[in-house]
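I'll show one example:
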Amino acid sequence: MGKLIYSMITSLDGYAEAAEGDLGTGAEDQEVHTYIGDLFRPVGTYLYGRRMYETMVYWETAHTEPGLPPHILEYARDWQAAEKIVYSTTLESVSSTRTRIERTFDPEAVRALKAASDHDLTVDGPNLAAQAIAAGLVDEYHLFITTSVVGGGKRFFPDGVRLDLELVGQRAFASGLIHAHYRPRQVQGSRVG
């Protein structure tokens, strides 16, 4: 059975997308990018909303750019090898292999996908992740926290959902970025999440 992982870069004040500008620095360096590549290499399926897919589809052809360092090429190969499901009511077609479009996010279909998977899955983007969190589907949270406070935007965690999490790992990088890895706490024999 695969785990469903939610991971995003987030500002120090908890925003996965800034209302204005970017989330700050810290994720661009080789140390961080290599760490992220190693951490998510076992992922077999990415669940994307349209906007996140349109950002990540760069990796379909990244390997064709001359002079890219080995850690970038390795990430591109890993991304290309994984399955991708894009949840969108407006996207007409996809431009990457191993990719399909679903018109609605069906929690039971995702639950079945997790149960049948030999590899982990990720849900990427705060809007899609909010649906997975509300349905109790997320098994792990990976926050990559920048050193910036952006004051508004789309929150990493959705409003209106209570989660009790336990910290299972952390790492600070020279750039100032912090990786915090959480799992839902077990409550009376059932999972909260």
